[in-house]
Amino acid sequence: MDVSLFMAEMAAKLAAPTQIPGWSHTDVAGGTKGLNWGGHSLDSADPLLANPELHQRCRAALTLSAKELKARCKQAELEVSGSKKVLSLRLAFQQTCPDHTPPASAAEMQKRRAENAKAPAAESAAPAAPVQAARRRPANLDDTAAVDRWKCRLAQDRAAADHAAALQQHAGASADELLTTATSEVAQVVANVVRGDCPHPLESLWLMATCDALGQPGALRILATVSHGRLCLGDAMLKIEPVRFFPFVGSEDAATLQDMGKAGFLDAAAGQLGINPAAMMTSELGPAAIEAMVDLAVADEEWDPEGLGQAGAAEVARLKSKFAVWLHGTTWGETFTHSTNRPSQASWNGDPWDSKFVMRHRECGLRRGLPATSVLEVSSTMDTTPAQLAAASEHTKAESFVQLWSANGGGESLGAGEAIEATLAVWRETSCELLAAQAATQQKQAPAGSKAKRRKTGRSTKK
Question: Is residue 292 a contact partner of residue 269, using CB atoms and an 8 Å limit?
């Protein structure tokens, strides 16, 4: 992909019209800065921007001179930087929605969850019925904070259920059996990388242990180092042949899935299967929906002018298999924008067909062949050396990270079994050092025993 062409397309998108006639996406982003959580701007598709009264006030404010417009913004205690359209929208929005407050930020949500965790013991010992009632969808879906809390509770319930299932699966297994299982799972992830399952370009894979109980979920972590240069510039700009990755998109398969999702083939697949996504919000897509999506896209000659279907049934089957891994766990409620899934929420994760979503929420797309009860956790990172990885982790040595795979063959990569034993040995050594340091700290902080001191006098004892 030509970088200059890509930049021109991005500039055209930013200059495209929005819900406010005459205002571009850039104007909306500047005029609504700070109105979303975390100091972000409102999305151009936000319903608040469709208000006709807001449009009228924007046009009226735009007739003022720049000096008078800045004076009015200053009087209203608004930021006075930006173009006239930015200032007009900023002033008009405050006049139209004076009571608008940004949704809760991620930090505020974390603070609220901490406060809820400190609730009295009587509340935690409540019967099952109130707990189930707390998982019900909020009555007022416009209350963004309540919706975010509800979605957070649902995610915590799912995580707890998966954790319990993994513990039950590995209960009673011997140490050798657990090591054999973990070795095969680590080797499977490496094979998935070699196969090209990750949508972003990778430089290396690193393994670290978080505990020595291999039956514990999350006992082993695999960190996939993303090549920042290839992701931002693409292979064509870096003159890498053959071209496999495109700027800010990822692999060609990632671009294909993204185009299918944006073109609405998933909605068409739901219609073909007789599924109403709004009535099955918490139900997962399933393999049938993904296969129907690919078949509909391949059959559409306008969408597929290069004839993806002409590549053969094997290529289509390969895409179906890969997209099933990337979209695994996706619910119908995540496939369209609605009251509980919109960009203006703190819990918004993005579209499930976006490569960034796959990297963050689908463990880099590398879970092909892994059971749901796997003890492995896969995540991505921009750190490239063990020292950088250790600096980003607490109480972790650089030796804790063992290289499993390298794109250019650099460094020493160990096999799955050797890597697990090596990182477990470092973890045990680190744990012993931490325990010794904690014991020494406690001993220093312990109060010293006071000895009674005799008062010295110049008197001599009588005999």
Answer: yes
Backbone conformation region of residue 274, classed left if phi is above 0, alpha if psi is from -120 to 50, else beta = left
**Intervals of the chain under pLDDT 70:** 1-8, 10, 14-15, 37-39, 99-134, 305-310, 394-395, 410-411, 446-463
Strand stretches in 133-265, DSSP E: 202-209, 220-226, 245-246, 250-251
Other beta carbons less than 10 A from residue 200's beta carbon: 22
**Crossing angle of helices 265-272 and 252-262, rounded to 10°:** 60
At 119 the pLDDT is 44
Based on C-alpha coordinates, what's the Rg of the chain? 29
- CB-side neighbour CA atoms (13 Å) of 13: 7
Amino acid at 422: A
Convert 408-426 to b/e letters by CB count within 10 Å (16 or more is b). Answer: eeeeebbebeebbebbbeb
Look up the pTM and report it.
0.65
- Upstream peptide bond of 242 is cis (omega within 30 degrees of 0): yes
Contact 298, 308 (CB under 8 A): yes
Q: pLDDT at position 408, please?
A: 83
Q: How far is CA 240 from CA 160, 195, 196, 274, 409, in A?
A: 44, 19, 16, 45, 16
> Is residue 99 helix, strand or coil?
coil
Q: Is the dihedral of CA 230, 235, 237, 240 positive or negative?
A: positive
Looking at residue 96, its pLDDT comes to 83
Q: Which two tokens stand for residue 306?
A: 């290069």
- For tokens 């040995």, the residue is 425
Is residue 5 within 8 Å of residue 251, measured between CB atoms? no
* Intra-chain end-to-end CA distance of the chain, in Å: 108
| Torsions phi, psi for 447 (to 5 deg) | -65, 135
pLDDT at 411: 67
Q: Report the C-alpha gap between 89 and 24 in whole angstroms.
A: 11
* CA dist., res. 351 & res. 261, Å (int): 8
β-bridge mates for residue 406, sequence order: 204
Give the type of residue at 153: R
Which tokens belong to 31?
Answer: 């005029």
- Under a CB-based contact definition with an 8 Å cutoff, are residues 47 and 100 in contact? no
Burial class (CB in 10 A: 0-12, 13-18, 19+), 36: buried
Q: Give the CA distances from residue 139 to residues 105, 142, 143, 147, in Å, rounded to whole numbers and listed in that order.
A: 21, 9, 9, 9
**What is the structure's pLDDT at 42?**
81
